[in-house]
Amino acid sequence: MEKNEVRELLPKSCLKAFDDIVEGRSLGASNHIKMISAMYVDIAAENDEVIASEKIRIVGDFFKETRGKSSYAIVLALAKIEAKIEAGSTAYEMRVKAARDAYFNEAEEDLKKLLTYTQRLMAKMSCIMIFDYSSTVEKAVCQADQKLVVYIPESRVINGGYPFVKGIVESGHTVHFIPDASMLSVLDKVDAVFIGAETFYPDGTAFNTIGSDILAELCMLRHVPYYVLTPLIKGDIRARYGIYKEVLTKDLKNELAAQWPEELKERVAFESIELVGVRPECITAYVCEKGILKTSDLFSMICKEEMPC
């Protein structure tokens, strides 16, 4: 179903969240799962069970097919919430709320563990670099026990550095906001680099916004630790069966040439890849709810999901 058709199914209370996800104004898979599950709750509140369940299915399928292409966590999380809804026996609206709450209670416990391990990892650090917005990375930095110097290279393709700034500044850290092209010039000053991930494969390949791969290669060259903070739900088990991520591209005309004359813009191509894979050998470790893991340890941790149809 097309975007506008799905949008018409939603209560008015959901329209802003829907638009923010579709138009890229809201970032982070974890944030999007919260926003989509809130749509489920509002749909259930305004419709009887038969209509609500069909609308939830359509909305869920839409985001699995669109947002899920970049982050498989969207697919897994929505599937888990939907399974909990079906397993319930109370009134439909109550089941939807309970399913949403149960999923996030579990996710919150996993996040607490991840943040604890990250705090221990950061304990002796004084200067770090973070790249491309991740709510998990933001929480980890804001909750650090010591005040840090934080370099944030702007990933201008999605304005992915700016959303970090307010929370980290208000947490008392010293922030340096720099062009992504200048990452190498300050890399020798940092103790480690931290990124989130949209998705990762069982072999340890992490997928994130363009620039993440460049930074990883630079870290390997300069012997700077490169950590990926992510819950295990973002693992894409399909790669084990030969089903790999599509190459996602985007027309960056508005991002790169907003001030160009229109006649010149129309004569230039701005197509670019959106999501890149970071090679496992560039990654020092993953930090997840199971601990601080080498990339070689991931396979046994995530290969417990059933093969998707």
UniProtKB/TrEMBL annotation:
Alphabetical list of SUPFAM superfamilies matching this protein: NagB/RpiA/CoA transferase-like
UniProt GO molecular function: guanyl-nucleotide exchange factor activity; isomerase activity; translation initiation factor activity
Subcellular location: Cytoplasm, Cytosol
UniProt keyword terms in alphabetical order: Cytoplasm, Initiation factor, Isomerase, Protein biosynthesis
Assembly and interaction partners: Component of the translation initiation factor 2B (eIF2B) complex which is a heterodecamer of two sets of five different subunits: alpha, beta, gamma, delta and epsilon. Subunits alpha, beta and delta comprise a regulatory subcomplex and subunits epsilon and gamma comprise a catalytic subcomplex. Within the complex, the hexameric regulatory complex resides at the center, with the two heterodimeric catalytic subcomplexes bound on opposite sides.
Family according to the record: Belongs to the eIF-2B alpha/beta/delta subunits family.
Protein name, UniProt field: Translation initiation factor eIF2B subunit beta
